[in-house]
Write a structure and sequence with these properties.
- This protein has 188 residues and is of the alpha/beta class.
- The chain has a single domain, classed as Rossmann fold (3-Layer(aba) Sandwich).
- The chain has five helices and nine strands; from the N terminus they run H-E-E-H-E-H-E-E-E-E-H-E-H-E.
- A five-stranded parallel sheet has the order 4-3-7-8-9. The protein has a two-stranded antiparallel ribbon with strand order 1-2.
Amino acid sequence: MEFKHLIKDVSNAPKLKLVSGYIFNTFSVGERGKKLVPELVDEVFNGLVDNIRSSKVNFDYIITIAPGGNQWALLVAHELRVPLNIIRDLPSGHEDEFKVRQSNQLHQRDLYFSGFKKGDRVIFIDDIISSGETLKTTMGSLKEHGVEVKAIFCIITKGDGDMSVGSSENIPIYTLIKVTKEGKLKTK
């Protein structure tokens, strides 16, 4: 599948230099993006759904972390008619909830997991994988609780973050496009 709208969006994405010195690419499909046009939404949505269907992975439901991948995961879950469980950054108060401290280049925060049971088979949808730190924390926490992550599906992988997660957790990662650490499109 060709991702001409996504490639154009990535190529034209403004960059923000954060207080930490980290350069943040404000891709429209990410948590700090500005505007999503219907053509871009269609392209990303169809790309994610096609990747999931062609992977032939067996799973019980989709998971994601707010705010990054939740809008994409919601669309895909609705299309595939499967449940969605969102890991949040605010407590829900549910009895089965557990909290994990997560840190990456952008921030430190607590993530709240609830509704997971030992033996669940899930796929994970995310917007952008940069360093892979959020995913490593999430995958490790789910594994400790007996949840099997069958595959990760994301829109953009930046740098080599997907490599560190894929090799350390042995989970296949499917991505629509890859960009360099600086945010430029990777060529094969």
